[in-house]
Amino acid sequence: MAPSASATSAASQQSGGHLAGGTDIIIPYYVYPADGAWTPLEQLCTMRRFPQYDNFELASDLDLDVRSAVSEPLADNLDESRAVSAFPDGGREAWTCLLGSFLMMFPSFGFQTAVGSVQDYISTHQLSEYSVSDVGWITAVLVFLTLFLGVQVGPLFDRYGPRILLICGSLGSFTSYILLAECCEYWHFMLCLGVLGGVSAAVITTVSIAVLSHWFYRRRALASGICMGGSSAGGAVIPLLLRTLFAKYGWIWAIRVIAFIALGCYTLGFALVKGRLPVSTQSRTTIDIRAFKSPRLCFLAVGVFSFEFIIFGCAALLPTYVRYAGLSLDVQFYSLTVLNAMSFLGRVLPGFAADLVGRFNILLTLVIMTLIVMAAVWLPFGSRDDATLYAVVAIFGFGSGGWLSLAPVCAGQLCKTEEYGRFYGTIYCVAAFGVLLTVPVGGELLQSTTPQVLVGFYSAVLLAGLVSIALSRWALLDWKWRWKVKV
Fold this sequence. Notes:
Elements: H1 5-15, E1 30-31, E2 39-40, H2 72-85, H3 92-105, H4 109-113, H5 115-124, H6 132-148, H7 150-160, H8 163-180, H9 186-210, H10 220-272, H11 295-324, H12 329-357, H13 359-381, H14 386-412, H15 420-448, H16 451-476
Antiparallel strand pairs: 1-2
């Protein structure tokens, strides 16, 4: 949706950017020029579009002649910059939509981040005759389908908008919780929690995140972080509820209470979420294989694979890890609350810094911080006592929350806005296989070795993710490493 001519002219006069022939262009990002200073692009006059970049944000040669810059690439830049200026990036409707996305994420993705408490309960009650690895396949299928089906939900969102998809996803999720309360056999849990819950959550979470791309551009990292904070809030509150409900009312009514909380959140969320951009009739429902021709996207996909492998492995196995480490029952539930409470901060606060300093830059910083804590503190000392475990889980939660919120926004820098749903689904289709394997593999390691071996294994996977994200950033800068570029 392009702005009016008068609006574009007024905004461009404020920014002071002019092209030859009197054409105005607005460019909102920062670069690092030769003098070593951070400079708003609004204060600069020209910018070259590099064909290797899908977005125009990262041009680095700013010292070209204005009159020689008038060409077809600059005309493309003009159209794209006008589209950028059309994003509200705030206002009542944008923030209301963000609140609705937050509420949708609370009982859907939030339940998945707290699923470790459910998995540990059924592995010691209804499914006590099964191994940790066997029970882990149920939650693995749940999270796998949530991410894998995003490759289909993303283009469906582009084609039909958010409303009809959220109705279907909310009804399916509520039904899965109601049926889950009645489950007592392995195949019951697999169908109700794993399959139906996973399909429903795929619709809700993908639409809740993708709709924000209609309303936010410059603040997209912040908006994505707040939206993903809904899942952290759910992951912090749901274990505390289950800890009390399991003891007072048993399995059936505990899950029913969660089901009706979910219904209330879905109802409010549906009333608030709405799209802004017109639907696309040319959206495809397949993986965009051509996207993997870009090294940037390939490296980012590997990095996201490792992040999802670690995050959902820890979320699902943390209560079981606590039990094998010999700590108390309360720690099994409260550790998840600490993890997700800090994850909420990690999903929101880095969004502020990312919009100022760069999404990839903040993402790399969080990964390095978390890796140091995991390898130097959690691995040797994490199971020593309650206080140490809470401390390392809190730092891990903050860091991993930032991974979850910033990785989709980094993916958005690799494509046009109208392609975001498809690119998002393509990357997370790859990441889905990480969550499919992490719980069974981690459960087997935990049961056959020691808790320290599991943490060491996850630290090695995170190191691979760190290298992949660094390479993706390097490729995004045309294989020229620049430390202070906002990217």
